Amino acid sequence: MPVTDPIADMLTRVRNAVHLRRETVVVRSSKIVISIAEALQREGFIKNFEIARNPKTPSQNDLKVFLKYGRCGEQVINLIERVSKPGRRIYAQKEQLKPVLRGMGCLVLTTSKGVLSDKEAREANVGGEVLVKVY
């Protein structure tokens, strides 16, 4: 079944897996989903991810995301939500990028320099479309 919004699908699957305390979650792969997973890994919200073959549909790969939890099993991801939606795009200039939750969270943006976290975008001095908010 085709997915009209792969980013929202990924975030919903991750949110549900974190709520159920799963170690891994399988997400349909696309270039933007892989880039978001890389940004979440760089910021420390997920352990790792790998691209896996889907046995049911060989032309479509899956992304296996390894979720991260604290020492006592507490959730690292408390909230993960889509900011810019297909019906309403949200853009932020470099001056508008403020730390999320005083630096405990992050925004994931798509910029002219690729998919970056808000911290990386401030360092690169660029703005862009705000895709994901996570803390």
Describe the structure.
The chain has 135 residues and is α+β, with helices and mostly antiparallel strands. It has one domain (6-134): Dna Ligase, domain 1 (2-Layer Sandwich), CATH 3.30.1490.10. Helices cover 24% and strands 31% of the residues. It is built from three helices and eight strands. Strands 4, 5, 6, 7 and 8 form a five-stranded antiparallel β-sheet that branches. The longest helix is centred in the first third of the chain and has 14 residues, at 6-19.
Per CATH, what is the topology? Dna Ligase, domain 1
- Number of structurally distinct domains: 1
In the CATH hierarchy, the architecture is 2-Layer Sandwich
Strand element count: 8
Low-confidence stretches: none
Order of helices and strands: HEHEEEEEEHE
Radius of gyration computed on alpha carbons: 15 Å
The CATH class label is: Alpha Beta
Helix-residue proportion: 10-25%
> Biggest β-sheet: count, sense, barrel?
5 strands, antiparallel
DSSP helical segment count? 3
Overall pLDDT confidence: 94
Strand content: 25-35%
Q: Which term fits the overall shape?
A: globular
Distance between the termini: 30 Å
Please state the structural category: alpha+beta
Short account of what is shown:
This protein is an alpha+beta fold and 135 residues long.
